[in-house]
Amino acid sequence: MYTFFFRLVFRRMDPERAHHLAFRWIRLAARIPVLRTFVAAALAPRHRALRTEAFGLRMHGPFGLAAGFDKNAVAIDGMSMLGFDHIEIGTVTGEPQPGNPRTRLFRLMADRALINRMGFNNEGSAAVAARLAARRPVFRTTVGVNIGKTKVVPESEAIGDYVLSTERLAGHADYLVVNVSSPNTPGLRSLQAVDQLRPLLTAVREAADRTVTHRRVPLLVKIAPDLADEDIDAVADLAVELGLDGIIATNTTIARDGLGLVSDPALVAETGGLSGAPLKARSLEVLRRLYARVGDRITLVGVGGIETAEDAWQRVLAGATLVQGYSAFIYVGPFWSRAIHKGLAARLAASPYATLAEAVGADTRKVTA
């Protein structure tokens, strides 16, 4: 039914307009008590075997919504209603910004992929913090806050911009993510270099501790799939050194490997970050490398090209405690999370592992043993 509706309606619409339309429907459904109860019962059944603990937080399961879908924290309950175990909002910048000029989102349907150059369009950290402070949760869910650099802020002042967002948002975040890996903000990815990343993460950690004194807010960093292997190792070592709580692998890619055979070459040539199925192999490779480097000392989050329960299971075996998705939701529809959970539970039951935590990194440990 969703596939038919997608092809009939959404496919003919501008992708960003379709996103906003679907977003409104999800938010509306979440505001109607009878409807949200019915939808949650149908789409978000809980599997006891999938209960997950990550950086001290307990979650219904390992599968969450990646940053980029709910930039301004307006649909946390709506996305929880659809079955996501954690919701990562953002990316939020210190100051509000409109993002890049439209058109800035493209569907590569034959490749089950998206290209975006949104440019961190969001209402800014003050507005998002106020919304989170006023929120009265309907569903119990974990909320991560992903922060990035305001475009007009010079690279030399980036740390201050991240600290501003941290001071405003850390108190409302179950966990905080420093995003230095989007390809759509000039100069942002250069912050992944260890000599720049160390002072940035140190400043954010200190700001979070200074702002939130009654608990420790877990801090993660999100990296790009386009990093060279030695740079991935360097970030992993830095994360261990600084006592980071997690690494998210990975953001979108600027590579276009294997595209253009079925998708329109003009679309493939659009600038921006590529997400979806073509990112699957590289994201999995980066995850394995990270786990081989850090083991169980740091929580890893696998994201990039996850479409099926088997994809999610492979990320767990590679070393991910949590997995996230976004792009496939556009193509698969609202039953996506239900299918992921059902398939994960079945794979765990058929495996030699008693718990999901035992399965984390099992395949990578075999290879490196």
Structure description:
The chain is 42% helix and 16% strand. The longest helix is centred in the middle third of the chain and has 18 residues. The chain is an alpha/beta fold and 369 residues long. The protein has 15 helices and 13 strands. The model has no long low-confidence stretch (mean pLDDT 94). The N and C termini lie far apart (47 Å). It is globular, with a radius of gyration of 19 Å. The strands form 3 sheets. The protein has an 8-stranded parallel barrel, surrounded by 6 helices. Strands 5-6-11 form a 3-stranded antiparallel sheet, with no helix packed on it. Strands 1-2 form a two-stranded antiparallel ribbon. Strand 5 and strand 6 form a beta hairpin.
Q: What's the end-to-end separation, in Å?
A: 47 Å
What share of residues are in beta strands?
15-25%
Strand order of the main beta sheet, please?
Answer: 3-4-7-8-9-10-12-13
Number of strands: 13
Question: How is this structure best summarized?
Answer:
With 369 residues, the protein is of the alpha/beta class. The chain contains 15 helices and 13 strands. The protein has helices at 2-8, 15-31, 33-43, 76-81, 125-134, 158-169, 194-211, 229-242, 265-268, 280-294, 309-318, 327-332, 336-350, 356-359, 362-368, and strands spanning 52-54, 57-59, 63-65, 86-93, 105-108, 113-116, 142-148, 175-179, 219-223, 246-249, 273-276, 299-303, 322-325.
